[in-house]
Amino acid sequence: MITMAAAVMSMMACSNVPPPEPYGAIPSPAQVAWQKMETNMFIHFGPNTFTGSEWGSGKEDVEVFAPTDLDCRQWVRTARAAGMKGVIITAKHHDGFCLWPNPMSSHTVARSTWMDGKGDILRDLSEACREYGLKFGVYISPWDRNDPTYGTDGYNEVFRKTLDSALGEYGEVFEQWFDGACGEGPNGKVQAYDWDLYHRTVHRHQPDAIIFSDVGPGCRWIGNERGIAGETCWSTLDTAGFEAGRSPHRDILNTGNAGGQAWVPGEADVSIRPGWFWRESENSKVKTLSQLLEIYYGSVGRNSLLLLNVPPDTRGRIHETDSLRLMEFRSALDKIFAVDLSDGAAAEASQTRGGSGKYSPANMLDDDYDSYWAADDGITASSLTFTLDGPKTFNRILLQEYIPLGQRISRFSVDVLADGRWTKAAEGTTVGYKRILLTDTVTATAVRINIEESFACPVLNGFGLFMDNMMAADGNEDGRISRRCTLMPAGRPHVLDLGQIRTVNGFFYEPGNNGQGGSIICYDLETSTDGKTWTTILKDRMFDNIVNNPVLQEVRFSSPSEARYLRLTPTRTELPDTYSIARFGAL
Ligand code: FUL
Q1: Nearest in space to 268 (alpha carbons), one of 300, 244, 312, 246
Q2: In the chain, which end has fewer C-beta atoms inside a 10 angstrom radius, N or C?
Q3: How far is the CA of 141 from the centre of ligand 1 (A)?
Q4: Of ligand 1's atoms, which has the minimum distance to the CA of residue 179?
Q5: pLDDT less than 70: residues of the chain
């Protein structure tokens, strides 16, 4: 009897051990739900799909927008089959063209003859999302190259009403994407945005919507358009004094701030193609399976959400090359993550909170998101040992922190027991919602996680071991090969000699290797037959979006030019003293 009573009392004591206090900035329930979505589809669609531009001028004829076989349900079916949980559509890109009948604009689907002016892509897409159980989100660019009021105080009110119309009519919106790109409007002026007004408007219609911008408040840009978060990636950010378009350095966006004042988790956006909009010429340049897996590990595997752009073509359908690649991507992920080699493991911790079963390390092995292992308050270094159910061969190690209590861990390492010896397999800084460590393939009987530094007692809810045989399976690692890159002093033009006089229809330019900066932003382009007398073909033109997305750009001349030499003179460069050229050639 006495033993029973003691046992009952000790169980009561255990279950009474209070959970850890949250540490620092913590996510809202909507942010936790958002983080669990993990992968979403971005959809860039609009006049640029038909003109081949990356940034439309806003002067395009509305008739340009003429999808021949639009099917939003096909987009959503594809996204769902790819395992994505939501879609975000460019309702209005920088050219100002609205994919819905926005009463505030004369540059919309309602003004075109497409579907007799009755077309409404926000309606069709939101309905398709409801039908297939995906969440619906909208990208609306505040920068507007069409609206005549842009650059004046009046525009803020126009934009507010634009938000009213896009966010009030189509049901639930899970994410509002505010692009930080801000340039001149039709009157040559740059707009002073009223962000408070915009945010209030979004939340009035959609109280739970996550607002994306360079600095949140709901989630932040990851600092590049390659879909790769920092190896260190905090969901916390110091936002005071910043706003969209006036953000911390992109390196800070990439890593966040340790102990930052606000919870603004990273969202990694990247296109499945070189450009954001569909282009026939890029059908052969859809990212390979290896590249997509690398992006997945670099985003979802580094405490970020992956927003993968899959732009529909001029029919208004996702092109078969892209959808096939997405299906390969999905089945590779399913294959890699189908078998968790930690199943059946025994978990042991150097210390468990209050000695309570409620916080047992075994909680890291179950599927219950809300059960976790935690250490006592004041303990910031601990180790967890998982003794596997026999020798297991793996090269991916998954860890999850229970983020409703904040992000805490700042340094850890992982050892594996192979051939009776412990060796270090990985080390890292942050964990966050999900961290997937890429290791050499190892056969081990136990794995030990050493938490070396943590802002407060560590709290982990997930651990897993996986084997990835797929990553380089397509043998194409193009995206990782650094091309030779020429660095030029900023004042000096770059001259290309074609060897003989040819008919030149345009040119292409790609900046330095793997997006390491140094892009030419604006340029003059001249041609010559003898290298002495030059004809200006393009004057002070811009490579659209090249700083954020430094991929190859093709520029067509309005008429062919007979030339032996091409001279590219930068008039604005990303870096003050130098610019980079990985590829430059004639078309
Ligand atoms: C950038 C834009 O300028 C690009 O065109 C694209 O929409 C990308 C997602 O965001 O800031």
Answers
A1: 300
A2: N
A3: 9
A4: 11
A5: 1-15, 472-485, 513-516
